[in-house]
Amino acid sequence: MRRVWPIVMTVVLIVVLIGAVSVGVGLITGANMDRVFNVLDNQYNLTIYYEYITGELIPALLDAGIIVK
Q1: Distance between CA 26 and CA 19 in Å, rounded?
Q2: Structure pTM?
Q3: Do residues 66 and 51 share a domain?
Q4: Which of 21, 47, 57, 62 has its CA 20 to 30 A from that of 6?
Q5: 38 lies in which domain range?
């Protein structure tokens, strides 16, 4: 397994790098980020997670004293 992890990390790093370059080129050429967000939101329900974290989780943690302002 020790020989596999460097290969896995290299592949992950390459994928992240390609993604970052793709987003960068898209922004340079005038991409519409609202469309990207809508596609990701439809696929992964990002708005639901955001509303849960900001509306319920953070206030509950503040009330419990786990997070201090």
Answers
A1: 10
A2: 0.52
A3: yes
A4: 21
A5: 32-69
Say yes or no: 24 and 37 in one domain: no
Question: 24 and 30 in contact (C-beta within 8 Å)?
Answer: no
Q: Which residues of 29-59 are buried (b: 16+ CB within 10 A; e: fewer)?
A: eeeeeeeeeeeeeeeeeeeeeeeeeeeeeee
Are 36 and 23 members of one domain?
Answer: no
Task: Let me know: does 23 contact 29? Beta carbons within 8 Å.
Answer: no
**What type of residue sits at position 25?**
V
How far is the C-alpha of 60 from the C-alpha of 53, rounded, in Å?
10
Instruction: Encode pLDDT of 23-66 as tens digits.
Output: 889 889 988 888 888 988 999 999 999 999 999 999 999 999 99
The residue behind tokens 């967000």 is: 37
